[in-house]
Amino acid sequence: MTAPHLRDRYLQDSINTASPAKLLLMLYDRLVLDLMQAEQALRAEEREAAHDKITHAQEIVIELRTSLDVEAWSGAPALANIYGWMLTELIGANIARDADRVAAIRNLAEPLRDTWREAAAAAVAG
């Protein structure tokens, strides 16, 4: 087995065995990474790389939105609206090749990720 194949298998196994909270954090971590890389690529005028990262970020936001149970808690509908805004902004940023719009989305995604991380840690602790 080659090293890339082993790495891919490890990543897939990690995803398959992760708890829902861990999966959510993995999605947010990757979303923030994609947004950072997209912003950098746009600023460097690497359009294809930026497009790929923004498109992947859109897929993550869609997954976050579709997996959100809006009946589960009172804040869920507002979070669904935030995801809708993020998706609209990602599409607009991709079309306009606007690094500042990508940065604004990242500036919202990072505190959301951190909040979910704290909630997951609190749930484990108590």
TrEMBL record:
UniProt keyword annotations, A-Z: Bacterial flagellum biogenesis, Chaperone, Cytoplasm
Stretches that traverse the bilayer: none
An annotated GO BP: bacterial-type flagellum assembly
Top-rank taxon, per record: Bacteria
UniProt cross-references to InterPro entries, sorted A to Z: FliS, FliS_sf
Source organism (scientific name): Paractinoplanes toevensis
Family that this chain belongs to: Belongs to the FliS family.
Protein name in the entry: Flagellar protein FliS
This protein's GO CC annotations: cytosol
Subcellular location: Cytoplasm, Cytosol
Pfam families the record matches: FliS
